[in-house]
Design a protein that fits this description.
Shape: globular
Largest sheet: 5 strands, mixed
Number of strands: 15
Helix content: 25-40%
Radius of gyration: 18 Å
Order of helices and strands: HEEEEHEHEHEEEEHEHEHEEEHH
Strand order of the largest sheet: 11-10-12-9-13
Number of helices: 9
């Protein structure tokens, strides 16, 4: 997996992201839609990605929505805590948490032993997903064997990037890095790269909803891993504990299944 570089550079990335997205933060609460702290005096700052449909994205009405957002809202309501969403992007979300600018992040982050050993502290898993490869709809590439000498796209610092990096030596292809999935997909259909690696449900959702001229290739997926909410400071363990308890409750009362059905039709 591509490692996060020095903490100072991560903090810089976070600061730059605030300039790029206007420091966008969307206040949310389980109770009344405000962002003021309640009697317990705590509003949790939760960082997230900008575009990882169907887990977080902006809908046609300009609302920031998705599976992660709905699960977070349902868990917060169940546990009675308040939170504020910071829409920053993947790299900047990590940087914000490591710099103490955010308490945790929920952004389709796969739970891995490597991340745990580097300081990530995860909640229980809330969705199992794997990574696979997609090509342009008219491509004659049918698998990894067709990648030799070519460039493929990945999103920086993700499980899909790690997956591609692991395969690149065996199949002799070059890995090209992008900051977000939509730009990466456009590179595929525009011919700048011959394929991309990303989380399978993300690509499937984009192909279905946008009609982008891509196809996911069979037999290119890796083993699934669970997504989890992450913190980077053990002082915020209370957030993990509440998330785990609330997640268990919303699974038991049917709310979790309704959220998945809303976005995935499951």
């Amino acid at each position: 997996m591509k490692k996060r570089i020095l903490a100072g550079l991560l903090t810089f990335a976070f600061a730059m992201s605030l300039v790029g997205c206007g420091g966008k933060a969307e206040p949310t609460t389980a109770a009344n839609g405000g962002s003021e702290a309640d009697g317990n005096g705590k509003v949790w700052q939760i960082a997230t990605d900008t575009s990882f449909k169907p887990f977080e994205y902006t809908d046609d009405s300009g609302n920031f929505v998705g599976i992660d957002m709905d699960i977070l809202a349902a868990v917060a309501e169940d546990q009675g805590f308040k939170y504020n969403v910071q829409v920053l992007g993947w790299d900047a979300s990590i940087a914000a948490c490591q710099a103490g600018q955010a308490d945790g992040m929920i952004a389709g982050a796969s739970i891995t032993e490597e991340r745990k050993s580097s300081g990530w502290i995860f909640s229980d898993g809330y969705y199992d997903a794997n990574q696979s490869m997609a090509v342009a709809e008219n491509s004659d590439i049918t698998g990894f064997d067709g990648l030799s000498g070519k460039s493929v796209a990945v999103k920086t610092g993700t499980m899909s990037a790690s997956y591609a990096e692991e395969l690149s030596g065996q199949y002799n292809f070059k890995v090209t890095y992008f900051e977000d999935s939509p730009t990466m997909y456009q590179a595929v259909v525009g011919g700048q790269v011959v394929a991309c690696f990303d989380d399978t449900p993300i690509m499937a959702s984009n192909i279905k909803d946008t009609g982008i001229a891509m196809k996911i290739l069979d037999n290119t997926g890796n083993d699934p891993a669970a997504y989890g909410l992450a913190i980077f400071n053990s002082d915020n363990q209370e957030l993990i504990d509440m998330f785990n308890k609330g997640l268990s409750n919303i699974k038991a009362n049917g709310t979790y299944d309704k959220i998945l059905a809303k976005y995935l039709g499951e």
